[in-house]
Amino acid sequence: MRLNQNILLLGKKVVLVPYTSEHVPRYHEWMKSEELQRLTASEPLTLEQEYAMQHSWREDADKCTFIVLDAEKWQAQTGTTEESCMVGDVNLFLTDPGDPSLGEIEVMIAGVTRLGLTKFEAKIGQGNEPSIRMFQKLHFEQLAVSTVFQEVTFRLVMSEPERQWLLQQTSHVEEKPYRDWWLEPH
To answer: Residue span of the signal peptide, if any (predicted)?
Structure first.
């Protein structure tokens, strides 16, 4: 999504940066793991397919992807590469053109202020107990079970008090221009 292509979110423990081609080699290595493939319901891709996927996600108007960096490691030494600090990713998929306030989320971090989302859905493989427990702890409610896709759909509808609480909890997060910040010593 082009909306986040120049946005860096700097938190106390993590930094969120747009998913760029620089991140693909490490991401591709992660996704070779059979366990990660199973937990994320992903198919193995070639490196070329992974580059094409990254490009597609950047261009698609219905996907917003950030790479999660370890903030301490990333800020510790000038010249540290983002790739060496990668610890995960955060994805928002705008799945319902009829409801622009709904986004399918893989990790609940971004989306509340800039995208105007008030509802989040998470689709999780039925056997992925750690993710199911995490989303239940985040107050997501089970919405549906698909035996065909072997996944459970959870939804969180943000009330105004919940939105204010989340904004308060993340008030330390700074939004900065991605490339300008990236060029500065950190």
So the answer is: none
Residue 116, Cβ neighbours under 10 Å: how many?
10
CA distances from 8 to 61, 92, 138, 163, 177 (A): 19, 16, 24, 21, 6
Residue 172 scores a pLDDT above 80: no
In contact, 120 and 73? CB cutoff 8 Å: no
Q: What is the pTM of this model?
A: 0.68
Q: How confident is the model over 107-149, as pLDDT tens digits?
A: 633 354 555 778 888 889 999 888 898 889 888 999 999 999 9
Which of left, alpha, beta for 74 (phi over 0: left; psi -120 to 50: alpha)?
A: alpha
